[in-house]
Amino acid sequence: MRKFTPWILCLVACSGCQAAQLLPIGRIQGIAHRSPYAGEIVEAQGIVTQVDKNGFCFQSKSPDASPETSDAMYVYQKNTEVHLGNEVRVKGRVEEWTPGGEDSYNLSITQIRAVAIRRIRSKAPLPKPVVLNYLMPDYPKIIKQPGSAYDPTINALDFWESLELMRVVIMDASIVGPKSRYGEIAVRIPQGLAEPRTPRGGVKLTGYEFNPARILVALDPESELNYSTGDRLSTPIQGIITYSFGNYKVTATSRPEPPYTSSIAAFSISDPLPDSAFKLATFNVENLYPELPDEKFRALGKIIAQSLQAPDIVALQEIQDNSGPKNDGEIGADQALDKLIRFILEAGGPRYSYHQLNPEENADGGWAGGNIRNAYLYKKESMRLGKSYHLKNPVFDKNKDRDYYGTRKPLVGFFQNEDRQLILINCHLNSKGRDSSSFGALLPAVRFSEPQRIAQTRVIRAHVDELRQKYPNAGVIVLGDMNDFEFSPAIQNLTGNQGLINLVNTVPLANRYTYIHQGFSQVLDHILVSPDLAGKLATQIVHVNADLSEALRASDHDPILAWFTNW
Fold first, then answer.
1. Residues 247 and 304 in one domain
2. Residue 34: CATH number of its domain
3. Could you say which DSSP state residue 24 is in?
4. Which of 2, 165, 205, 135 minimizes the C-alpha distance to 69?
5. Based on the structure, what is the number of domains in the chain?
6. Domain shared by 137 and 115, yes or no
7. Cα-to-chain-centroid distance, residue 535
8. Across residues 206-234, what is the average pLDDT?
9. Among 85, 102, 175, 515, which one is most buried in terms of CB atoms within 10 A?
10. Looking at the domain assignment, is residue 274 inside a domain?
11. Computed from CA positions of residues 6, 12, 17, 21, in that sequence, does the dihedral angle turn out positive or negative?
């Protein structure tokens, strides 16, 4: 066997470097989120457990005596020549690196910016991974708050910090958040305490500080395997605890096998409704434009014609213009709507008419150039469309007030048959994209997007009250993607003080979700009706999308169906 000669790689001239002391990795990490040695030159020794283009993770051969400290660190060294399983001694400056930058409100990761690396052994056994299942019975339910002492037994952020960059394994995991386009899934660790569950096997969001025993898992984004809510993984997940985009996650170092698929099928209406039932629905169809594959339109058509049983009126959100995301001056949206209607017919549905109003070019929110808007599909034999208009107010127009931007104007439509009138307000309110994370550096988490939705729903509520006074015999319905929860202040603006009735609240709690974000099944879509209509309508959320892996679904939202029982 060829004898291996240790070597030293000098990355910078070290003649002026301060003397370094050899320290255990756990001591460098410290009993805190930030290293007590930040800014100092140290040496540390460990085994390489993962290598990427910017450096590598290494971990002590054996754990130290403190469960409060992580035994692993990141070493920043681009184009590194180390390999998995090398035992190395690293000299460098300790830093706290924040993914996304200091303005991102992310937590920091402790790392060493290497100035010299010495390879001790070319191949050493990898440190034994921590089995997360064994820790979950004591998993803390509290998310760290400002001023609280570091304690991994009490605070969830401290719990994950004590495992930062360490090797872990999860056994018998079940999917609570389907695979995203970024190759991430959310998994539930079965030994965690019970939490509200959905019939499919997800986790129902119940409040702003909800913290179940779940974690994101970053898989190979190039993998063609699909994972949907309720699937169980057939093999253990092995990986390293990392942090990015406001979340702790396990970056998988093993390749999971295909899942054991749940026996629970996608939900649909169990009993056909009578032909005489008047049905209406709301459905976010996720950035629809003509050039998207026919398969997406075909799936949407099947959902509307079959799963929703061809409602008399469908309020649609996220219709882009004819050129989609191209910023080319196009604002019309007839091609996508015509194509959708064609595929509804193919699925056995009726020939719908549609209605939409073009937005001002690039004045409404969403994809630059997409000119996203709301629209209605309706059956002319059921309802005639009267007047229609955008609900205009500075809170919906980025060109009028710099504090309110990135939203779509509600589309008001007056629908009438022989003796009944419905006034619908089709909404797609400001998204939550700017909110800080519950697992971030800004605590409590700040809902930066919420003031805009509160202002928007105040305007909508004022218009609802005006319509109810002006048209006392008409039913008023606010529906669409409100981008907020049933318990949120924005929705309470619409329901409080003898306001509208939220039909979502009539759906059993376990089934009450239209969207899944990072493993949390939550309500973002709503149908709210004037009190005179509430007792005449039944409601169901039709779970045909949100639980499914991104590659398998037609949209990221589930539609809501309501129907009159005695209208």
1. no
2. 2.40.50.140
3. -
4. 165
5. 3
6. no
7. 33
8. 90
9. 175
10. no
11. negative
* 231 in the same domain as 100: no
CB 335 within 8 A of CB 300: no
Outline where 100-204 has alpha helix (H): 132-135, 156-161
Q: Exposure of 327 by Cβ count < 10 A (0-12 exposed, 13-18 middle, 19+ buried)?
A: middle
Task: Tell me the average pLDDT across 33-48.
Answer: 96
Residues 238 and 352 in one domain: no
Asked whether the beta carbons of 232 and 262 are under 8 A apart, the reply is yes
pTM, two decimal places:
0.93
CA angle 149, 150, 154 (to 5 degrees): 90
- State the sign of the Cα–Cα–Cα–Cα dihedral 552, 555, 558, 559: negative
Domain membership of residue 200 (yes or no) is yes
3-state per-residue secondary structure call for 447-479: CCCHHHHHHHHHHHHHHHHHHHHHCCCCEEEEE
**By CB neighbour count within 10 A (0-12 exposed, 13-18 middle, 19+ buried), where does 28 fall?**
buried
pLDDT digits over 330-364, tens only?
Answer: 999 999 999 999 999 999 999 999 999 999 888 87
Q: Burial of 39 by CB count in 10 Å (0-12 exposed, 13-18 middle, 19+ buried)?
A: exposed
SS3 label, residue 180: coil
Tell me how many degrees the CA angle 72-77-81 measures, rounded to the nearest 5: 95
The mean of the pLDDT values for the chain is 91
Q: Is residue 283 part of a domain?
A: yes
- Residue 100 carries which DSSP code? T
For residue 423, the domain's CATH number is 3.60.10.10
pLDDT digits (tens, 9 = 90+) for 223-238: 889 999 999 988 999 9
Per-residue pLDDT, 8: 47
Considering the domain architecture, whether residues 137 and 283 belong to the same structural domain is answered as: no
Could you tell me which residue, 342 or 220, shows the higher pLDDT?
Answer: 342
Output the CA–CA distances (angstroms, integers) from residue 342 to 219, 289, 319, 349, in the order listed: 37, 14, 16, 9
Among 36, 112, 40, 125, smallest CA distance to 73 is for 112
- 68, 93, 121: which is the final residue of a domain? 121
d(CA 110, CA 99): 11
What is the DSSP track for 238-298?
Answer: EEEEEEETTEEEEEESS-PPPPB--SPPPP--SSPPPTT--EEEEEEEEEE-TTS-HHHHH
Asked if the model's pLDDT at residue 1 lies above 50, the reply is no
Number of residues in the chain: 567
The structure tokens listed for 21 are 């002391």
Residue in the structure block whose two tokens are 């180390």: 82
User: Is the pLDDT score of 150 beyond 90?
Assistant: yes
The range of the structural domain enclosing residue 246 comes to: 130-252
Query: At what angle are helices 294-302 and 334-346 packed, to 10 degrees?
Result: 60
Listed residues 66, 91, 121: the one ending a domain: 121
Asked whether residue 240 falls in the same domain as residue 157, the answer is yes
DSSP 290-359: TTS-HHHHHHHHHIIIIIS---SEEEEEEE--TTTT--SS----HHHHHHHHHHHHHTT----EEE--PP
With respect to residue 30, please indicate whether it lies within any of the assigned structural domains: yes
Question: How confident is the model at residue 184, as a pLDDT?
Answer: 95
